[in-house]
């Protein structure tokens, strides 16, 4: 195994009495997309900005591409790419001018025109940035972040304010970068984004990582009981079970064929996530309809659920759960 | 019955990420990046029409108004033979122009860039911080040279003001201009941290500049200002810059209109240098790449 792209142990940062980051650990492997999920104020952005060298930490061990970001110089900065939250600087320059200009900061830049094409802005190459739409502006931000050919790319809430189509295009772009060998550390509060893009994700709460896994297994999601719902004799029925396949087979046999209104679902990532960041400390999925409490069910093998909703009977899953509440 | 497909969709981290291409290239030199910054800054500046019109037209328009209003019927300033009003106001407008294109320009534009996140973005790149400031120096040089050229051309062409021919006077012009521009630029960098947002930057910076113009003898004959106002003005660099420019553009005998009876070149050099050094120290110590509310 190659050295970790990002290695963080016991990271601490406080603002006055508030502990924004309080003993956070994480490791990002080379070549993966790593998502950091968490509510506003959980410490995501503070953490990422420490990793980017924008902020000083108060304690803990941090290595990004083998160096301490607090002390790293230009050579290190040329190996990372940073896409911050909303910016609207350099409004009077065109897309092309700006990407060409930023390329001049780096020792081995990508071809700026190819980068403009890769983010789908060739049509807008001669447009001043102040005339770009929000989604185009964000793609320009990514272009500026990757023009230096970074080994590690930081994306801070990259698709906030995107329409669904723009998000899909953006996700393809990011997945393409990963496939090209770029390590990506992404913060987001969109669960479907983490589910779609991330190889692994960490949930941060109160400045600490409270869960870390591949999205499908986050918070022991796959091990939680499934809920089977059906209609029998005019009544809605519901059963929690660790073995839904056996249960449904028996049910079908008992009812002699097609089970009316059959629905089998496991807790969605959103439900698991809400439990993880909730007051209940992950002990239960509080207040979320259809969620199974973790009853210590035995895992029957490595259950892996499809990430998307396609083919899953759980059609009630919200398609784009956004957890942003205070903006 | 449709069971969920069991396709494993978990992506393992790429076992052997395609290695990033060999990094043979060297970091670009600070000089090369500074020149690139100067170019980008200048292009951006000249495209921002409002700022361009204000910074370039303001001194010219003020000169035109004051020369026309006060200079009616060939009125002159000072004891016989006196100086035409247009000529008398020209040095003050040159000094104002320097202040606008250095101090006001940088104080507002850096505050806006900080607010918009542009500075933070630059800090995340391998751009050397020095190159950012050298780029600003380049911008200020270009802007102030264009501006003073425009002002002198209008003064000579439209108002028939005689410009000096003596090389010694142009030498004085050169050092007052250079020192004034440098001091104004570093003070602009330092002052840019005061406005709380980019939007409020003009509202904070412009009044400072306007008040300085009134008390520093740009709009009035300096010698006729109340002496307390002269003392207040002496604390600030605009008074000294305007005085230096008067020694360039006014006839020698006009020195009798100076309250001190001298052009005080040494004093001018000392005050502007002091502002340059203090501005530099304060600017370096207070400069922020992030917004104030950004931790």
From TrEMBL, chain A:
One GO term of the biological process aspect: response to antibiotic
Any one of the GO CC terms: plasma membrane
UniProt key word Nucleotide-binding: yes
Highest rank taxon of the organism: Bacteria
Main localization (coarse): membrane
Localization terms from the record: Cell membrane
UniProt GO MF annotations: ATP binding; ATP hydrolysis activity
UniProt-listed Gene3D superfamilies: P-loop containing nucleotide triphosphate hydrolases
Pfam families: ABC_tran (PF00005)
InterPro entries: AAA+_ATPase, ABC_transporter-like_ATP-bd, ABC_transporter-like_CS, ABC_transporter_ATP-binding, P-loop_NTPase
Key words of the record: Antibiotic resistance, ATP-binding, Cell membrane, Membrane, Nucleotide-binding, Translocase, Transport
Membrane disposition: Peripheral membrane protein
Domain (ABC transporter): residue spans on this chain: 6-231
Cross-referenced SUPFAM superfamilies: P-loop containing nucleoside triphosphate hydrolases
CDD domains in UniProt: ABC_DR_subfamily_A
Record region (Disordered): 286-327
Protein family per UniProt: Belongs to the ABC transporter superfamily.
Protein name: ABC transporter
Organism encoding this protein: Actinotalea ferrariae CF5-4
TrEMBL record, chain B:
Domain of life: Bacteria
ABC transmembrane type-2 domain sequence ranges: 50-290
UniProt GO molecular function: ABC-type transporter activity
Region (Disordered): 1-27
Main location: membrane
Entry's transmembrane regions: 51-70, 90-112, 133-158, 170-191, 203-222, 266-287
UniProt keyword terms in alphabetical order: Antibiotic resistance, Cell membrane, Membrane, Transmembrane, Transmembrane helix, Transport
Similarity comment: family membership: Belongs to the ABC-2 integral membrane protein family.
Protein name from the UniProt record: Transport permease protein
Organism phylogeny: Bacteria, Bacillati, Actinomycetota, Actinomycetes, Micrococcales
């Amino acid at each position: 195994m190659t050295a970790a792209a990002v290695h963080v142990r016991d990271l601490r940062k406080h603002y006055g009495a508030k502990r924004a980051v309080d003993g956070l650990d994480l490791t990002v492997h080379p070549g993966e997309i790593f998502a950091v999920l968490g509510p506003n104020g959980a410490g995501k952005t503070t953490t990422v900005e420490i990793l980017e060298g924008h902020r000083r930490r108060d304690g803990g061990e941090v290595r990004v591409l083998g160096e301490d970001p607090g002390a790293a110089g230009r050579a290190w900065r040329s190996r990372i790419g940073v896409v911050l939250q909303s910016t609207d600087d350099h409004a009077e320059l065109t897309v092309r001018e700006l990407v060409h200009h930023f390329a001049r900061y780096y020792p081995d830049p990508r071809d700026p025109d190819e980068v403009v094409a890769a983010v789908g802005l060739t049509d807008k190459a001669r447009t001043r940035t102040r005339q770009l739409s929000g989604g185009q502006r964000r793609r320009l931000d990514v272009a500026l972040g990757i023009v230096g050919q970074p080994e590690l790319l930081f994306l801070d809430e990259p698709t906030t304010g995107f329409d669904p189509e723009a998000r899909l295009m953006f996700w393809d772009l990011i997945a393409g970068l990963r496939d090209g060998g770029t390590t990506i550390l992404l913060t987001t509060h969109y669960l479907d984004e983490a589910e779609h893009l991330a190889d692994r994700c960490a949930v941060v709460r109160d400045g600490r990582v409270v869960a870390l896994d591949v999205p499908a297994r986050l918070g022991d999601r796959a091990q939680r009981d499934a809920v089977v719902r059906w209609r029998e004799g005019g009544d809605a029925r519901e059963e929690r079970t660790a073995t839904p396949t056996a249960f449904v087979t028996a049910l079908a046999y008992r009812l002699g064929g097609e089970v009316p209104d059959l629905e089998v679902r496991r807790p969605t990532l959103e439900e698991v996530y809400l439990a993880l960041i909730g007051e209940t400390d992950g002990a239960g999925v509080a207040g979320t309809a259809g969620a199974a409490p973790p009853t210590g069910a035995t895992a029957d093998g490595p259950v892996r659920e499809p990430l998307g909703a396609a083919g899953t009977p759980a059609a009630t899953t919200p398609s784009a759960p956004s957890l942003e509440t205070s903006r | 019955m449709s069971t969920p497909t069991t396709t494993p969709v978990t992506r393992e981290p790429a076992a052997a990420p395609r290695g990033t291409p060999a990094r043979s290239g060297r970091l670009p030199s600070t000089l090369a990046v500074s020149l690139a910054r100067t170019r980008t800054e200048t292009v951006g500046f000249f495209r921002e029409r409002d700022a361009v019109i204000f910074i370039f037209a303001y001194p010219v328009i003020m000169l035109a108004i004051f020369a026309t209003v006060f200079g009616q019927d060939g009125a002159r300033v000072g004891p016989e033979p006196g100086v035409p009003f247009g000529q008398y106001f020209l040095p003050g407008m040159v000094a104002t122009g320097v202040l606008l294109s250095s101090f006001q320009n940088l104080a507002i534009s850096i505050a806006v860039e900080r607010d918009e996140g542009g500075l933070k973005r630059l800090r995340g790149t391998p751009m050397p911080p020095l190159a950012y400031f050298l780029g600003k120096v380049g911008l200020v040089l270009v802007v102030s040279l264009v501006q003073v050229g425009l002002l002198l051309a209008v003064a000579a062409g439209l108002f028939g003001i005689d410009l000096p021919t003596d090389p010694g006077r142009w030498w004085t012009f050169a050092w007052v201009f250079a020192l004034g521009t440098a001091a104004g630029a570093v003070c602009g960098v330092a002052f840019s941290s005061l406005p709380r947002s980019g939007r409020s930057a003009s509202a904070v910076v412009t009044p400072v500049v306007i008040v300085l113009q009134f008390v520093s003898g740009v709009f009035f004959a300096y010698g006729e200002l109340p002496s307390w106002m002269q003392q207040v003005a002496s604390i600030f660099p605009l008074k000294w810059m305007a005085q230096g420019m008067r020694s360039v553009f006014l006839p020698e005998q006009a020195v009798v209109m100076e309250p001190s009876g001298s052009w005080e070149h040494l004093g001018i050099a000392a005050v502007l240098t002091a502002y340059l050094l203090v501005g530099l120290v304060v600017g370096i110590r207070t400069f922020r790449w992030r917004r104030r509310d950004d931790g």
